[in-house]
Amino acid sequence: MDHDNYPNDYIRDILQSVKTIALVGASQNPARPSWIVMKYLLERGYDVIPINPGLVGGELLGKTVYKNLSEVPHPIDMVEIFRNSEAAGPITDEALSLDPLPKVIWMQLSVRNDEAAARAEARGIKVVMDRCPKIEFGRLSGEISWQGVNSRMISAKKPVLAGKGFQKLSLNRPR
């Protein structure tokens, strides 16, 4: 995989296929990006599991906080790493010890560890680095354009709403 340029279909397929996301580095501070991303993904129907040793046993946005990945009592589809690039290596190794293996290792903006990515890909796990799933979901669904951000997606087709209530767009846009 060319980790400098991800095809839109690669990202879309990941976001459509995963349901359970372990967010390593979750924060209880609503001003922190990890809290904002967790809230957004929960609102989009993902089961987001916060991982933070300092908050273990508590709740974050209504979800139980775990110390590490191995303590999560059910399978994880995607491990999202909200830590620095150096910490991404050991976190990836912990994810590689899970049974079953996650489908995806996702490293947040500015987080890149090519060695960890190679280890994960060698085990058949998809890897995304230096990207944010909130931004990518918003870009691919068209929501991001509501804030005046160029989504780099051009389409004359009407986006698909993702349910009732506040307007949320689906990733199931006509292609």
In short:
Helix content is about 30%, strand content about 15%. It has about 180 residues and is α/β, with parallel strands linked by helices.
* Total beta strands: 7
Q: What does the radius of gyration come to? A: 16 Å
Helix content: 25-40%
| Largest beta-sheet characterization | 5 strands, parallel
What is the typical, i.e. mean, pLDDT? Answer: 89
Distance between the termini: 23 Å
Instruction: Assess the beta-strand content as a share of residues.
Output: 5-15%
Low-confidence stretches: none
Order of helices and strands: HEHEEEEHEHEH
The geometry reads as globular
Our count of helices gives: 5
Layout of secondary structure:
Elements: H1 8-17, E1 20-24, H2 33-43, E2 47-51, E3 59-60, E4 63-64, E5 78-81, H3 85-96, E6 104-107, H4 114-122, E7 126-128, H5 133-141
Parallel strand pairs: 1-2, 1-5, 5-6, 6-7
Antiparallel strand pairs: 3-4
Helix pairs in contact: 1-5, 3-4
Structure description:
- With 175 residues, this protein is α/β, with parallel strands linked by helices.
- Helices cover 29% and strands 14% of the residues.
- The chain has helices spanning 8-17, 33-43, 85-96, 114-122, 133-141; strands spanning 20-24, 47-51, 59-60, 63-64, 78-81, 104-107, 126-128.
- Strand 6, helix 4 and strand 7 (126-128) form a beta-alpha-beta unit.
- The longest helix has 12 residues, at 85-96.
- The chain is globular, with a radius of gyration of 16 Å.
- The mean pLDDT is 89.
